[in-house]
User: Fold Cytochrome P450 from Panaeolus cyanescens.
Amino acid sequence: LRNHKRNPRHLPCPPGPKGWPWIGILFQLPQKQVWLAHNQWSKSYGDMIFYSVMGTNFLVLNSNKRTNDLLEDRSANYSDRIRMPMLVELMNWRYNFAFMRYGPVWRKHRKAFHEHFNPSVIGKYDQIQLVHIRRFLGQLLHSPQNFLHHINFVFAAIIMDAVYGVQIEDSDKDPHVDTIAAALGGLAKAGVPGSYLVDHIPILKYYPGWLPGGGFQKDGAEGREATERYAVQTFNQVKEALRSGTARPSVVGSLIENFTGGHGDVSSQAEANMIAKNVGAIAYVAGADTTASAVQAFFLAMAMHPEIQKKAQAEIDSVIGPGRLPEFSDKPLLPYIDAVLKETMRWHTVVPFGVAHMSTEDDEYDGYFIPGGTVVMGNSWSILNDPAVFENPSAFNPDRYFKNPNLRHPHEAAFGYGRRICPGRFFSDHNLFAITSSVLSVFDILPAIDDKGNTIPLKYEPTSGFIS
Ligand code: HEM
Assistant:
């Protein structure tokens, strides 16, 4: 950028592929597993890669040092989010504070969320988690071939219970299950910025749907309807239950009820209700598929590594014995289980390319100029597979944390960065402990066998999406 006022020392932007005027490197962008391609690119350009696509600047950070320097130490400038016209404006995902621009409205939501998910309060969900996880063990026993479905369902059930006090049924006929599926369908279509032309040219959002090329407006309208149903319907159900005195304890109920007048950040009951509605709606979207992905990876790792599974089971047997299932109070006594969980979060990066941050102001860093409005990605996969830190990174090896007790905790990249770091990580950790220790205490996880009785070999093949 040669503008003298903005870049008085005429510093270069960080290195990266160049591409064409305005469209930039649009046609060089990898279509699949973008994190791997950027990891490769870092061999030519270094651990910071800068480029532009259709007028937007991107900066990809491929090392822990870079994410620490920018997303943590300078987080005041690197915590904004990118404008997403299709998802947020047309499909009306405004309620979701993960996509909110950095500022006071986002802060109020984050604070309300944190009140209910910080480490000192998440113990209040222990009972809910254990009840649903024990039901899950029964489902596994009954139909182990449907284990992927059971994994998805148990997190849906835990979150809906904790957040709304609502019990969902394991059936397509459950009205919540159906509504959630429709809303998530919109997210899958529009969640990756740039999926629609209107993301690049926001003025198109006013383009009439009946003109040629206006088909995206139909997707927008369908998404909007599904989002509205999803965010409002269950919230109204909680309000109604509060009115009639039948409400079970829940995050949303407590956010509605505990508004105590106009002091503090939230100024009216209407605003408190809006925040309660939004916090409720995000917990499911942000928490269910992510945690389920980690548990699927755990099942795969156990089936691929029977010796590690046996070691974990031996620890549970010696600490807890055969007479009961693990409880949260057992957690500090199970260091090997803890190492298995850490390694699961490292080996399979659930959100491998992170969630896009955006810089607010122009910045100078390490001899480079980074323009305000640059989209900044932390390549979590690169960080968690850095061979200089994690020896032989593609191997699933919980023992690495005993060999080097100071080894970096995978949570540092797996849950994102700085002021936007995942505020559900303590709850998620709790869920993961409960489910993995319970499963290992009563089941063996083995590879499937084919019709002839032969073991089907297993391979780790992560999918490509935003959540892998
Ligand atoms: C294995 C499980 C999970 C993983 C891997 C995960 C990962 C992430 C990541 C990478 C981000 C983006 C952070 C950034 O912008 O740098 C994020 C944000 C978020 N997560 Fe999670 N998450 C998990 C579970 C959960 C759960 C269970 C909840 C809720 C109960 C949750 C709620 C949120 C929220 C609300 C945000 C948005 C934060 C903001 O923009 O300020 N997550 N998560």
Residues 97-98, 110, 113, 117, 282-283, 286-287, 290-291, 294, 350-351, 354-355, 357, 414-417, 420-424, 427-428 surround protoporphyrin IX containing FE (CB under 6 Å). The longest helix spans residues 269-304. Strands lie at 48-53, 56-61, 357-358, 363-365, 368-370, 375-378.
